[in-house]
Amino acid sequence: MSAIISKTETEEKIISYNPATGEKIGAVAQTSAAQVVNAVENSQRAFKSWRETSFKERAKFVLKAREAILNEMDEIARLISDESGKPVTEAFSAEIAPVLDLMRYFARKTPAILKPEKINIGQLGLLGRSSKIIYQPLGAVGIISPWNFPFSIPLGEVVMALMAGNTVVLKPSELTPLVGVKIGEIFRKVDLPENVLQVITGDGRTGAALVEAGVNKIMFTGSVATGKKIAGNAAKTLTPVVLELGGKDPMIVFADADLEAASSAAIWGAFTNSGQACSSVERLYVEESIAERFTAMIVAKTRKLQQNLGSIETTDVGAMVSENQLKIVEDHVADFKKSGAEILTGGKRNGNFQGTFFEPTVIAGAGNEMRAMREETFGPTLPIATFKTESEAVELANDTDFGLTASIWTKNISRGKRVAEKILAGTVMVNEVLYTHGIGQTPWGGFKQSGYGRTHGKLGLMELVAPQHIHVNRVTVLPNAWWFGYSQNAIDTFRGFARHFSSGSLFQTAKLAPQMLKRIKELRKK
User: Fold this and answer.
1) Are 287 and 197 in a shared domain?
2) Which end of the chain is more exposed for a tag (fewer CB within 10 A), N or C?
3) Boundary (domain end) residue, out of 225, 244, 263
4) Of 244, 287, 359, 376, catalytic
């Protein structure tokens, strides 16, 4: 089911449904544009005091929130599962556990990452000058988060923004609004100061209003089409944005790979969260000599997967989040058939359930010329193509408008690393797949249509601060040689700067000393 807008006598409501059962879970308000502006203004006011808090004070709130999550883990996992359709197992493994690790890491490490940094300015340091960089918080940060990981993605970004000294206005997806509301409740329980974190609910209108409401940065995770709209609207006010968009992630399997491990990785990488991850394996390239055997392993393992309600412990693959998303998968599977590819297993809606379930689908004979190999599917499909040489594998993997993640499978680690450096993707894994978003210490983001900017890691934290350069001159008794009072003597001095000082050599710079003294004497007379 999709989120449905309903109107009462007083306000619009968004109704949230369990996509696996069609049951209503709850309802939230459709926040108006005026209310969004008010929230941002409150956030800006709260920023004035929040930015003055110490890292230690901020960390206390984050770690208290972490404890609150631990105390409510089962309830939170069930809410994530109910609202997104994913197995409750994945709510723990892909959402709760990774973000708890991220919270601990940034609560403890942010002071070291953002500590002032002294800059070596070379020989100018001998003239009594010094430079350093400090990191200033940005202000009110707007976070527009997706439905596929409705807890870990926004909460991780919230924590990093707060630790950097920013305030946050969070707009969760209209398909999973209750998980977003839960994040706000967690921080209220630990007495986070008022308006430091606000959660506003609504559809795309609310997100658009947030972009235009005067925030100091937008963090967006979602589709390429929406990302382009956000970037265009943000450009009108020069609001900086981080865009984490789609993927069409390749997996390359060489003949010398551990095929048992690689086949298990492939089906998990393609079908976890019903394939609804921007880092899902959407293109599998297998060396031709092993393709038949490897494909048979893939099919056999796929047929053993348990598809059921997310609330059942043994469920491997749950429901898709919405009817619209399922229709995209149906369209892509139809395109594969039309283009001559072969559906080896799956390929259709699972008729055993009322909700939006699509069978895990393995497709042979795929090729990059097919539309469904070029557009993001975001569903439980695994198309397989073959290659003969290493260079062909690299060419096929890079033949895409996207560049988020990729994986390479080989027992030859040197080759794995070599090929990894040739793949145009933000993260490339060797003998691992998909899960690196769960490593909060590492940067996350892509190339090309997969967006720009980074979340997570040091680079992600740097997106949430403004580097400020502080330069100090401790020697003011002497006039600066480059000040006014230009003359032939000044030109001779600056020629000396170009020839000797800019060389970086103390020996060469020493040759400039007589001319410098002559210039200083000239300035003192003036």
Assistant:
1) no
2) C
3) 244
4) 244
Residue tagged active-site, from 83, 90, 174, 278: 278
How far is C-alpha 334 from the chain's CA centre? 31
| Dist. CA 432–CA 261, nearest whole Å | 9
In angstroms, rounded to a whole number, what is the distance separating the alpha carbons of residues 92 and 78?
Answer: 9
Determine how many CB atoms are found less than 10 A away from the CB of residue 10.
7
Q: Does one domain contain both 406 and 266?
A: yes
* pLDDT band for position 478 (cuts 50, 70, 90): confident
User: Is 75 among the residues known to form the active site?
Assistant: no
For residues 362 and 368, what is the distance between their CA atoms, to the nearest angstrom?
16
Report the alpha-carbon distance of residue 485 to residue 265 in Å, rounded: 71
Q: How far apart are CA 354 and CA 319, in angstroms?
A: 10
Segment 278-282 shows an average pLDDT of: 97
| Domain coverage including residue 77 | 33-244
Instruction: Show which of 189, 212, 244 is a domain's final residue.
Output: 244
Instruction: Clarify whether residues 301 and 409 are in a common domain.
Output: yes
Q: Would the pTM of this model clear 0.70, i.e. be above it?
A: yes
The reply to whether 270 and 303 lie within a common domain is yes
The reply to whether 244 belongs to the active site is yes
In this structure, are 259 and 236 located in the same domain?
A: no
Same domain, 345 and 411: yes
